[in-house]
Write a structure and sequence with these properties.
Bound molecules: zinc ion
Largest sheet: none
Number of strands: 0
Helix content: over 70%
Number of helices: 7
């Protein structure tokens, strides 16, 4: 058995947390270096045991908990702000996309002339809207992203 293995076990042995097994006991009996180290560790343990245990200052727990609560509140404020800014940007992007879709597809003009919709206007509308499908898909993706961020932020806070 190596001295390093025994030296690793000395601290718990000196503290009474570990009973030396046969191999360690045999090594300690034959190795004066490790036996002296064990004596040192036992002496140190006794000195530490004899020292008075310092008491925590009054209101230590309540003060610590208050600080923890304050820190957590700040984190939540930060998360809230980030979430609101992100949501605002996403909403802006969605509104921009919708405006673009309406503008490009001519829906604005169509709504002004709603009667035309009832006839062949519907067919024309479908033809006009078809090329803007990718824009709708983009807007939907943005909405899904916003909902995803919302879900994530709510989960972080709870
Ligand atoms: Zn040794």
């Amino acid at each position: 058995m190596l001295c390093t293995e025994v030296l690793d076990a000395l601290e718990p042995i000196a503290a009474g947390e570990l009973t030396p097994d046969d191999r360690i006991a045999a090594h300690l009996a034959s190795c004066p270096h490790c036996a002296a180290a064990l004596e040192d560790a036992r002496r140190l343990e006794q000195i530490l045991q004899a020292r008075p245990m310092p008491r925590a200052p009054a209101q230590f727990t309540s003060r610590t908990m208050a600080r923890v609560r304050r820190a957590r509140w700040r984190t939540e404020q930060f998360l809230d702000l980030g979430f609101n800014v992100t949501l605002g940007l996403v909403l802006l992007a969605i509104l921009g996309s919708v405006w673009l879709v309406l503008h490009r597809s001519g829906l604005v003009a169509v709504s002004n002339d709603a009667v035309a919709l009832l006839g062949t206007g519907l067919v024309t509308l479908a033809r006009r809207v078809a090329p803007t499908v990718p824009l709708y898909a983009g807007a939907t993706a943005l909405l899904v992203t916003a909902l995803g961020i919302w879900w994530w932020a709510e989960r972080e806070l709870t």
